[in-house]
Every structure is written in structure tokens, then in C-alpha cells.
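dude i think i finally got it to work??
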Amino acid sequence: MNLFMNKNWQPMLLEQKKHPFDSKDYYFELKLDGTRALIFATTKSIIIKTRHSTDVSFKYPELQNIRKLVTKPTIFDGEITSFINGKPSFKALATRTHLKDKTKIKNQSIINPVTFIAFDILYLAKNLTNLPLEKRKRILNQFPDTEVFIKNKYLEKEGKKLFSQVKKLSLEGIVAKKKDSPYLINTRTTNWLKIKNLKEEEFYIAGFTENTNSYSLYLGEYLDNSLFFVGKVSITKNNFLMKKVLSEKKISSSPFSNYKEKITYLKPKLKCQVTYLERTKNNHLREPSIK
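look at this
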């Protein structure tokens, strides 16, 4: 398959690991809080595809300047990211993600520009995916950084040291990549590992819905003596916690001050421990999971 001509394929994905580690066989990079993207660049234009092969080129006109970096057909893999005070901001990026109006997109590209953080190169007039990562990194390093294109920095050997800095700065996490790994399209592989910097809190369980193979628990926290909905989390039907949840007292109206949908509501007495990545601008949990 010609990767550049086809374009309808998905990037290599990562498996998750709980704890950071050190190894001379890996590169360790920051895990960036953004939108995974493939950029297909020629001297005339670029096409931006998400990990699900959706064309989002029109959303980020400022990234068209990346075409000036290439002299032949090129595919970069990386992350579209917004920065606030030097730190990646998912909230700032979300402002751009859902825009469709051309005028608003153009205005946001000026007042809230994005940056493409490149961490791999897959094509440079020919397919590079069979090369080991360390050789692809050397090829990628030939491209200069600009205002809209930055190569992701990495450490060798010291994954724990990088993760320690990530925790101090409250960043999303780190990624560990085997130096000798080829690039496997349409594949999730243990050659690349993500270690997330998760937050952990207790929340009240104030409702649930039943799905085919699981339940969704509706979580809340008290602020100024009012219970606020902060999100829902999935739990398997055989989880011991569900026996407790199902035995809790059911109530007819929502105990949440900001959520009134039709679900099974509970008197909010039972708590559960939840890990999550961060909170959205609406104070909802991102990527929550039962601890």
C-alpha cells in the first residue's frame, strides 16, 4: 500500500502501563495533551488526518505553513496541541476542535493558534515505516522547528526522572518507545507504552444506568452544600461494588443541582475512589476510571 496516496489508515497506537521505568532500550517522551494527527505534506499543501482518518485540514489553517519545510511528499506523525503559559492545554484546544464556521476558525488561528508536535516521520518520498524508530528519529531531526512545527524532545534511559518532572508540572504523562521498533500502521502495540499522570479522588455515587455488559455510575461532589454532577464512569456487572450500589436507596428525583436526565437516582451516601486525567472547563472528569 502506498501510504501517501492511500491516506485512509490509522496511526500506530500505544498500550498503557501503570508505572514509569528506566531502560536503555527506550526513548522517553512527554505525553502531550492534544489531538493525534497525521500530516501529509507536499510543497503545495498539507492534509491533516485524525487517528480515525477524519480530514481536519480546514480547522487549522496556520498549520499549512508546514508545507514550506518539505521538498518532497512527507508524512509526519504527531500531536496538534494548544499551549497556555508554556503548558499543553486540552481546554484551549477544545475551543478549536468543534469549530466549523470559516470566519471563526480564521480568527481563532490568530488569537489561539495551535502547534504540531512531531514525534515521528513515516514517509519521505518513500515508505520509512520498516526502519527502526532510532533511524526515523534521525531523519525527523533534519527538519527545523518553526512557530507551528516542533519536534518532540526525548530522554534516553531515564523514564522515572522524566515522569517525576511531569508530576511536578502536572502534565499528562510520558510515553516509552522501543528504539528498534518499526512503525506498525492500524496496530496497537506494546512497543510503545503510555504512562499517565492520573489524579485520584473520592466521589459520591448518586445514580446509575444499565448497559449491555456494564453499568454507568453517575458521580457527584458537594460544593456549597449542593451536589454537582462531575461525570460518569463505567463498571463491570460482576464488580463487587455494584452489589452495594444496587442495594442503596433509590429516589425519584435528581440529587444533582446541575443534572436532571432520566436515570435511576440514588440517595448520595456511597462513595467510590476514581482516577482521572483532569477536569474540563465544566468541571467534568476526563477519562475517569474506578480505582
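The radius of gyration is 22 Å.
im so relieved honestly
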